[in-house]
Amino acid sequence: MTNVPTIDLSNGVTMPVIGFGTWPIPDRKAEGMVTAAIETGYRLIDTAEMYRNEEGVGRGVRASGIDRSEIFVTTKLSQRWHGFDEAQQAFENSSRRLGLGPIDLFLIHWPNPEMDRYVDAWRGMIELLDAGKVRAIGVSNFKPAHLRRLIDETGVAPHVNQIELNPWVPRTKEREFHIENDIVTESWAPIGKGGGLLRDPVLEDLAAERERTPAQIVLRWHLQLGLLPIPKTSKRPRLAENLDVFGFTLTDDEMRRLSSIDSGRGVGSDDFGS
Predict the structure, then answer these.
(1) Active-site annotation holder among 20, 42, 51, 168
(2) Which of 139, 168, 257, 272 has its CB surrounded by the most CB atoms within 10 Å?
(3) Whole-angstrom Cα distance, residue 162 to residue 184?
(4) 185-226 pLDDT, tens per residue?
């Protein structure tokens, strides 16, 4: 079993540097996959209200037999809970479904700027943090302009911003902003979606040269950039493959080659404002 390294968030909370993503695993299958992931060595499990599998994730964590304190669980509130009081209710709902006590990392799933309530939701998240109900708070899919507004209006920067990020969609400007403001970048769809990225000729060549899988090469790229990838798989053999990324290091030239394939071909919506 792999011992996964950790990174310190700006408030001192430690977070594993790679995790298991659970979208779009249905609730009925989430328990088994989460338990298998934990048995493989994963200690970061990512879910969300919108995934409709929080109950299954909670069951999987409990069924693993691993002490709760060793598992880092992330979940996210959806747009209906944008507001100070609403964020409190969203926490109560997710906490009940998970059944795991305090949530390690609680995120606002999308900024939804057309609603213009994400700052109010952020104030609610800060209240949850101050009350000790969550260990860390953050956002997902926020652009630098959204983050700047949070910081300017509340004085509190997110600990994490989880965004779509991989060699095809490297989000350079977002990463630079995160570094400047001590925000950890967490990557969703870190190995792409549907297999297109993993068939990129540059990536295939690197994988063949290193006798590694394309997914392992990409995940190593994330780690060496200081990013936290959360690959998802519904195939149990891939769990170990995706975690076996700590026994080798990409050279500077290999990192440059991989970073050169930026195509802008993201799988997620990027229409949430600037």
Answers:
(1) 51
(2) 139
(3) 8
(4) 999 999 998 779 999 999 999 999 999 999 999 999 999 999
